[in-house]
Design brief:
The complex is a heterodimer. By secondary structure, chain A is mainly α. Chain A is 64% helix and 0% strand. In chain A, helix 3 packs parallel to helix 5 and helix 4 runs parallel beside helix 15. Classes of the chains: A mainly alpha, B mainly alpha.
Chain lengths: 572, 192
Amino acid sequence: MADTAVDVHHDHHGHDDHHHGPTGILKYIWSTDHKIIAMQYLFTGMLMAIIGGYMAYVFRMQLAFPGISVPGFGQVSPGEYNALITNHGSIMIFWVAMPVLIAAFGNYLIPLMIGADDMVFPRINRLSFQVFFLSVIVLMASLFVEGGGFGGAWTSYPPLSAVAEYNQTNLGSSLWLIAVALEFVAFLLGGINFITTLMNSRAPGMKAYDIPLVAWMIVIASILFMLSVGPLVAGAVMLLFDQTLGTGFYDPARGGDPILWQHLFWFFGHPEVYVVLLPAIGITVDVIATFARKKIFGYKMVLYTAVATGVLSFFVWAHHQFIAGIDPRMANVFTVTTLLISVPIAEMCFVIIATLYGGSIRLTTPMLWALAFMAEFLIGGVTGIFLGASGADIYFHDTYFVLAHFHYTFFPIAIIGSFCAFTYWFPKMFGRMMNDTLGKIHFWGTIIPFNFIFIPLFVLGMGGQHRRIYNFQHFPELATPEMFQLRQIATISLLIMIAFQLVFFYNMITSWIRGEKAGKNPWQANTLEWTTESPPPHGNWPLDRMPVVYRGPYEYGHPDREEDYWPQDEPA
Amino acid sequence: MANAKPLATLRSATGIPTGRLAVWWVLASEVVIFGGLLGTYIMHRLGHPEWAEAASHTQTWIGAINTFVLLTSSFTAVLAHQAAEKGNGKEAAKLLGFTILGALTFLVIKSFEWANEISHGYTITANTFWSFYYTAAGLHALHVIAGAIIMGVVAVDAYRGRELHRVELIGIYWHFVDVVWIFLFPLLYIAK
């Protein structure tokens, strides 16, 4: 089989040679190399982030300046508005956070960090990306079919999602559902690969507590995903049958139950929060240890609390349904479990703060992103307490307070976490350093507008502004000039933030072409990926020099050594 | 082929062969899919005692024959594993052939059963019991079809003496398909 042939000489050049003849491009499309597949996921995710961001721009313009002709889109009709918010949510979670944080960095880092030459099943890995890419195509196609894209929100509650007369997007909603299902298949294939690779393919000498935390976190997240998505797969089949065959699984008049979907969806949906959170925390912990030049304060603490978070996350789902008519006694139980889950997350925060304490902190761009992740996620976490308590949630439910809360969690996870990882591992991926000044301009240009977008939305939410409203002028009590001012602050901040992303793309492209050569270990880090060339060749290390592990990943600032770092593969 | 495998595939830090480990994880992900569907069905069934009337129209004896067919096909899968352990690829391929035959028999019986039910008006939209009936059994039948196809590939390889360890892996999967049916049979047929 040609596709499994080892092709060592070609991959030395990294990605500069996308422009070869068709054979050259085919080599990238059909590659089974985990690094190439990681790039495929990374750049597809980046492209989807641009599309998702564009959608946010369009509907924010409509909300702040109702009825204007949005530059680059035109006037937004109510149906289009629904399709935009639905697909913005779906894209940012399923087609940005998941492929970038888990699939791209998981693929890139797991084999390199555990000293293996590839994933255990390279061809299944390639299949995983191909199924994922198919899901992207189906989703994009769903936006252009008759009736437009699905507009029933990313949570897709029946009967709105199940009955074509209600959602008026007969084909769009089915295609959306199929795209999500394909995406699940892709991540199940990828996840099983990650789990098996971490369990079986570690370098000689690497014990469970020698594995870098980011690799652990991605694998724990994969397990969480695998165990939570099953019921939703079954639920999605039922919803698809309701849409296309006319069954009545979610129709109470025919013996079904619409709340059933909410249970199945959130039984997946809440663990999903931690599926994307854990990799982001893993990235942060790794970056903070490197740039604080200090051993992680509590390696096992982070690992155990991650497992505890994972277990607890299966018992909190009904806090999304406090006003859906569930039994108040159930609501009490879910309030308690929801508030409990903040304990392990808080412990991870304390571990990070304790690691920073007394460290020799280097404020590089990735370190800034890591610190910002902590600070911003904290706001998201603390506002979650209001929503987890059922008494308060009855008032906050489905307001912009909820929206601002989960953007304060998802933005740090999906955007800050991804930028943190991207700027940290960029030298390894492309062999060149990113420009630090431009990196910092981009950092501040993203973080400051981010807060100016969502803090006004908290205020609006407390003022009673409901979600999923196309035009607030239709509601006199929500159409006051003060409220419109806050909406306009948020939208203008979004425009500023989007403009600053140009700095990032400029920095990425110019650094890629003519950045300073990075060398093997530009950050003086310990983990195994820094012991090979940048970018690593096919097979990661020469076959006769595969790494052997002698110590844990965070041995910084050892008193008996001259250098303040101690690579994992250096014999004692 | 064999030398194109990455080093990662050949390592085994846990001591469990990589293929077997992966199959168990696949099954874990399958358990929650069927678990979600059957859990939902059981909850609904408890809330709707009137579904017993619809359930009384299922043909228990056909379900029983299919249970017997599937169990027998699992037995030949075990024998195939035993033959593969001894390195007898041709024998393993022949026994896997019997298992595939069992899968096909199961599907043929199921087709006649469904055709009969549909012709009596018990379609997937007749009521929610029948919706669950066709969805759950259909999802299971998809697994039977997938298993039979993969088994064909494994059997061809085994016949040529290659990748004999895969006989065990497809066997593990086949037992799982069997076990799912063991849950479906009482839930959909026996409980009237």
